[in-house]
Amino acid sequence: MITLFNYWHYLVLSVLLLIFIGFAVLVVKQEDSKQKYQIVLLFFVLYIIIAGISMVVVDKYTKTAKLYRLENKRNLSTEKIMYSGVVRNEGDYEIGEVVLEIKLVNGGSDTGSVKSGMFFKPSGFTGLFSSGVKPQQITEEFVVAKNLKPKQSQDFIVYLDYPPYFRSVSHFSKLYVH
Predict the structure, then answer these.
(1) What's the pTM value of the predicted model, to 2 decimals?
(2) Which whole number is the average pLDDT over 114-143?
(3) Residue 132: CB partners within 8 Å, gap ≥ 6?
(4) Residue 47: in which H helix or E strand, if any?
(5) Which of 11, 48, 86, 151 has the largest CB neighbor count within 10 A?
(6) Which of these, 85, 74, 90, 89, lies nearest to 142 by C-alpha position?
């Protein structure tokens, strides 16, 4: 995974480091405390946890990407579905990776609408000849852009295996920015 820090990341880490150093100095200067180093270790662990959470929060507010013109076309001869579109960096900072998650959900069968949990599960004699229930949902992730500069767009095309038994499929897509 490629992660790019901007000056907000460094600013947050610096402020947290100064707070940690301040607490550590105050604890070490205490003369009557017998557990100085355990307290410093506790502050260090808290610093690591808060720094990790802060990096995720800074990423969420400084790195934003949007998906445009997402289209899908099914190729029956290869049993694949092609997704194409454009991803654009809407933020003011460079993005390391843009990941597109595509989920296909089988919405029904030949007899009409089927709710989850209503699929036939073979048992007994019929179970000997079938491998069980086929998956009714497929989720895959694709890296569609790397090192995307601010306000830059990039085209992409990805291919996904399409099960031939799917009927009335629902398509869901989601972008993740790293």
Answers:
(1) 0.68
(2) 64
(3) 121, 122
(4) helix 36-62
(5) 86
(6) 85
